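Dear colleague,

Thank you for sharing your sequence with our group. We've completed the structure prediction you requested, and as agreed, I am returning the results in plain text so they can be pasted directly into your records. Please verify that the sequence below matches your submission; if there's any discrepancy, let me know and we will rerun it promptly.
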Amino acid sequence: MLKEHCFTQVINLRRSTERLRLASESLNRVGVAFSRHEAVDGEDLDENQIELYSRRAAKRYFGRPLSRGELGCYLSHRAALGEFIASGSQFGLILEDDIVVSEDFAKIVSQLVASSANWTGAANLGSVDVPVSTSVLEFEHASERRCLCQTPKFPTFATAILWTKSEAQEFLTADRLINAPLDHAYQRWFTKRGKGFAVLPPIATQSKIDTEIGGRNQSRKTISGRISYHWAKTRRDLLLALHSRI
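Please find the predicted structure tokens below.
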């Protein structure tokens, strides 16, 4: 049922064969079929050739420029969303290759798809860092008591997100400037729109394997870099608090 109604992708760098093997084992164990979406490798990027990215805008909004790895991650998720929309499916499950899923993962996602009248937007399946939330759906036949909650501040965790097609289309249409890492862009988008949901307790976690797609940024190691990031974060947090609709 899940395969018929939900287009599932795992984002994976070509060189990250071990990560794909582990993700495949976890998903195959619970009967989730998926297609591999080849990630954009940040090591091959020239930020000056990325039309949507503004280094200046990133420093102003996020407090620092993005690393090539962060840009690769962002572009990978955008491309995966585009592939989901082109698939014709009404739901898209976009996973990163460090995912480890719970035994009831497929059952919960199937219930989310079947209960779409109760929610619209996107559901974060893996974050434990969720603010006080409003329960909108309780799941049946779960391995433990779980619910879908509408959250006033969408979690910064992008390893496992279930999208509705309409929300994915709106995000790609409106997302014309890259000025923050992907997870922060998602948080801003869903918090402003009041369409962010989370499954609690989560049904996906990250494996212990080191990240390869996210990369590192060195700009916060300087005093001026830390100050710039601190003030930008303070502004972002205030704006997110003002935009919360719950």
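Summary note from our side: The two ends are 33 Å apart (CA to CA).

Kind regards,
the structure core
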